Amino acid sequence: MAAYNIYEAKTHLSALVEQAVNGEEVILARAGKPVAKIVPIKDEKRPKKRKIFGQNFLGITYVAPDAFDPMTEEELKEWGL
Description:
Layout: E1 2-5, H1 6-11, H2 13-21, E2 26-30, E3 33-38, E4 53-55, E5 61-63, H3 73-78
Parallel strand pairs: 1-2
Antiparallel strand pairs: 2-3, 4-5
């Protein structure tokens, strides 16, 4: 569980929303006291998006272990190859 103050949350809102969508609990605090929680809306029809690569607001870069594996037949069709 990560807690962020309101100023930090305003500055990095899109990154915090992405964390919540990926299942992490995001708590917002005012004067050090928790006041709100960002949670994803449950949508059973939408498959969970797998993070391939990216960078969070701290500058930490993430690359999935299989990011450079050969594409599957389904992925090739999606890319029109």
